[in-house]
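Q: what sequence does this backbone want?
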C-alpha cells in the first residue's frame, strides 16, 4: 500500500510539472509573439518601414538597415515604448556613408556686449580652434564661445570664402548676427547712425569676394530731433516741406496725406521719423495746421516743439484769415500754442529795403556785402565768417547803417550759419525774410536749415529755402570724381581684355565678366560722358576695318545698356586702323592695335589731360 501511494503521488507531481512546463512554454511563446507584433506595429506607425522585429524568449531584436545614425536611435527609442528597453537588442546596420546626402552646413555668429557665440555645423576639415582664435584676434580679444558641431562630409563650394568673409564682417560689426552658408552670408546689424550705416555698407561691399552673395539688413536708431520741427509752405508755384518730423509711420502717413491734399507732389512727400516729439498728438496738430493753410490758399505753417506759427501771404482776405485762425486755435490740442500773422502792405522807401547778402562760391570763396548796424557788428560778422570759412576765403564789403533794427545782427549771423550747410549758394537777409538758395551734398540740408532758422529767428518769421541736393557732393555716398572713374576702369582693364569672335562684333563669353566690372564702376559715375572707341590693325581693306571697329564699339555700348547703365551721354565711334599704338608689322603689334578705348568726354571738354583707358580686342589667332 505504501509503495502504490508513493508512485501515485510521484505521478501526480510529474503530471503537474508537465502541465506547468507546457503552460510556461505557451506563455513565453505568447509573450514573444505579442512583443514582436507590438514592436512592428509602433515602428510602422512611426513611419520606420525599413526596420523589422524578431524575438527570442523575452529579448526583442530590432533589425534592418538604418539610413542614418539618428534614424537607428529613433527606431530603438520607438521599440522601447512598448517593451522594456532592457529587452530591446540592436541588430541594425547603418547605410554606407556615400549613400547619405551631406548635411546643410551653416553657422550663426552672434556678437554683442557680452561676447561672441559661434553656433552651427561645419565640415570636419574646418579648423575650429583656428576659427575661434581668428575671430578673437580680429575682434581684439572679445570672449568667443565655441558651440560648433562637425560632420565628416566634403566641403561645399563657396563655404571657405563665405566663412572667411564672415570673420571680416564681424570685425566691423560690434552688435550683429551673421549667418553663413556655402556661398551665402546674411548680415543683420544695428549701426549708430544713418551715416554709419552707409559707410558700413560700402566697406562690406568692397571686401565681398566675387563668389559670395551678401544679404544686408542694417538698421540705424531713430535720430533725436530737437527742436521737433515741421515747416510747410504753399505759394503760387508749389507746396513743399522745408522740414517735416513725425514720431511713427502712422503719424507720417497722416501728415503727408494732409500735405498732398494741400498740393504737395507725392514725389516730394518726405518726412523724417525721429525721437523728441513734444506730444503724442503732434500729427493731429500738424494735420489741422496744414489744412488751415490749404483753406487759406497759400501761406506757411511752422511747428517747433509745441509752438505753431501761421504766416499768411500778403493780400489774404481778413475775414477768411480770422475765421481759419480762430477755428485752428480752438481745435488744437491743449499743449500747442498758436501765433498767426497776416502781413500788412508796406510802402517802400526811396532807398529800398535794407539787405545783407552772403555768397559762397564752389571754390569756397565767400563775399559779404550789404548793410550791417555798426562797426562792431561788421567786425563780428567778418570774424564769424573767417572762423567758419577761413580767413583767406572771406571778402567783406558791407556798409554801416545805423537805422537798422536791433535784431538785425542776429538775422545776419543766422544767415551766415545757414551758409555753412551749402556747398555753394547765397543767403539774402531783409527785415521781413531770409532767402536761402544753393546746392548741397546733404540730403537733410533743407530740414537742418529750416530747424536752424526757426530756433534763431522764431517760428513766426518768414524765410524761403531753395536748396538743391547734388549726390555728387554727398560725402556719405563716396561717389568718384571723373578722374577716379577713369582710373578705376583702367585698373579693371590693365590685366584683362574685351575679346571678340574672329572678324565679328560678337563679344566672347569670357569678356562678360570684364563688362560686368566696368558696369559696376559706371553705375557710380552717372552724368559722365564717355566715348567708346573701336580700333583695328591694318590687315584687310580700310573700309572694312572702319566698319568693324564701329560695330565693335557699338556692341560694347549695347552690352552696357543691357546692364542698365545710363548711356544717353555715351558715344560709340569706330576709328578703324588710323590710330595704331604699335607696329602693325608684328603679331604682337597688331594684337595691341586691336582694342577698345574709353575716353572721358567731359575731361576733354574741360581741357584737362586724360589718359585713354584701353581694352585691347584680343582674339585668339584673329586677323582684325
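A:
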Amino acid at each position: 500500500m505504501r509503495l502504490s501511494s508513493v508512485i501515485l503521488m510521484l505521478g501526480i507531481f510529474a503530471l503537474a510539472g508537465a502541465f506547468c512546463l507546457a503552460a510556461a512554454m505557451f506563455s513565453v511563446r505568447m509573450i514573444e509573439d505579442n512583443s514582436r507584433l507590438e514592436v512592428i506595429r509602433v515602428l510602422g506607425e512611426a513611419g520606420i518601414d525599413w526596420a523589422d522585429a524578431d524575438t527570442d524568449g523575452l529579448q526583442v531584436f530590432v533589425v534592418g538597415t538604418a539610413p542614418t545614425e539618428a534614424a537607428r536611435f529613433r527606431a530603438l527609442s520607438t521599440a522601447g515604448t512598448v517593451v522594456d528597453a532592457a529587452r530591446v537588442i540592436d541588430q541594425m546596420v547603418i547605410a554606407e556613408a556615400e549613400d547619405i546626402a551631406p548635411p546643410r552646413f551653416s553657422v550663426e555668429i552672434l556678437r554683442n556686449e557680452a561676447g561672441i557665440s559661434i553656433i552651427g555645423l561645419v565640415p570636419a576639415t574646418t579648423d575650429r580652434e583656428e576659427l575661434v582664435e581668428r575671430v578673437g584676434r580680429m575682434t581684439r580679444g572679445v570672449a568667443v564661445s565655441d558651440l560648433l558641431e562637425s560632420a565628416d562630409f566634403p566641403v561645399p563650394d563657396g563655404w571657405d570664402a563665405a566663412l572667411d568673409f564672415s570673420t571680416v564682417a564681424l570685425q566691423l560689426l560690434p552688435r550683429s548676427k551673421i549667418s553663413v552658408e556655402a556661398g551665402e552670408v546674411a548680415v543683420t546689424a544695428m549701426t549708430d547712425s544713418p551715416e554709419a550705416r552707409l559707410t558700413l555698407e560700402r566697406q562690406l561691399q568692397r571686401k565681398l569676394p566675387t563668389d559670395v552673395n551678401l544679404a544686408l539688413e542694417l538698421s540705424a536708431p531713430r535720430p533725436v530731433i530737437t527742436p521737433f520741427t515741421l515747416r510747410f509752405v504753399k505759394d503760387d508755384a508749389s507746396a513743399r516741406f522745408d522740414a517735416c518730423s513725425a514720431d511713427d509711420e502712422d503719424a507720417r502717413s497722416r501728415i503727408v496725406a494732409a500735405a498732398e491734399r494741400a498740393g504737395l507732389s507725392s514725389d516730394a512727400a518726405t518726412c523724417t521719423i525721429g525721437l523728441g516729439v513734444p506730444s503724442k498728438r503732434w500729427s493731429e496738430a500738424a494735420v489741422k495746421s496744414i489744412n488751415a493753410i490749404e483753406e487759406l490758399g497759400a501761406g506757411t505753417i511752422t511747428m517747433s516743439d509745441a509752438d505753431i506759427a501761421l504766416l499768411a501771404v500778403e493780400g489774404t482776405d481778413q475775414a477768411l484769415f480770422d475765421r481759419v485762425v480762430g477755428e485752428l486755435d480752438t481745435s488744437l490740442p491743449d499743449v500747442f500754442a498758436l501765433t498767426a500773422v497776416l502781413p500788412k502792405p508796406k510802402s517802400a522807401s526811396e532807398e529800398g529795403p535794407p539787405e545783407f547778402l552772403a555768397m559762397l562760391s564752389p571754390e569756397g570763396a565767400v563775399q559779404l556785402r550789404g548793410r550791417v548796424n555798426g562797426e562792431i557788428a561788421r567786425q563780428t560778422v567778418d570774424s564769424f565768417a573767417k572762423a567758419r570759412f577761413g580767413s583767406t576765403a572771406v571778402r567783406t564789403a558791407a556798409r554801416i547803417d545805423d537805422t537798422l533794427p536791433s535784431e538785425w545782427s542776429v538775422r545776419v549771423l543766422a544767415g551766415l550759419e545757414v551758409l555753412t550747410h551749402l556747398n555753394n549758394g547765397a543767403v539774402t537777409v531783409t527785415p521781413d525774410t531770409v532767402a536761402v538758395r544753393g546746392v548741397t551734398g546733404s540730403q537733410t540740408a533743407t530740414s537742418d536749415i529750416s530747424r536752424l532758422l526757426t530756433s534763431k529767428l522764431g517760428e513766426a518769421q518768414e524765410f524761403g529755402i531753395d536748396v538743391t541736393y547734388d549726390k555728387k557732393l554727398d560725402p556719405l555716398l563716396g561717389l568718384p570724381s571723373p578722374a577716379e572713374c577713369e582710373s578705376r576702369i583702367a585698373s579693371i582693364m590693365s590685366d584683362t581684355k574685351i575679346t571678340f569672335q574672329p572678324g565679328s562684333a560678337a563679344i566672347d563669353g569670357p569678356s562678360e565678366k570684364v563688362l560686368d566690372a566696368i558696369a559696376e564702376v559706371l553705375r557710380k559715375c552717372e552724368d559722365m560722358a564717355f566715348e567708346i572707341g573701336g580700333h583695328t590693325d591694318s590687315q584687310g581693306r580700310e573700309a572694312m576695318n572702319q566698319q568693324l571697329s564701329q560695330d565693335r564699339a557699338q556692341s560694347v555700348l549695347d552690352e552696357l545698356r543691357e546692364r542698365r547703365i545710363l548711356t544717353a551721354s555715351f558715344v560709340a565711334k569706330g576709328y578703324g586702323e588710323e590710330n595704331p599704338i604699335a607696329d602693325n608689322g608684328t603679331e604682337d603689334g597688331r594684337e595691341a592695335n586691336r582694342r577698345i578705348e574709353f575716353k572721358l568726354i567731359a575731361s576733354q571738354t574741360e581741357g584737362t589731360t586724360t589718359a585713354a583707358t584701353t581694352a585691347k580686342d584680343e582674339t585668339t589667332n584673329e586677323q582684325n
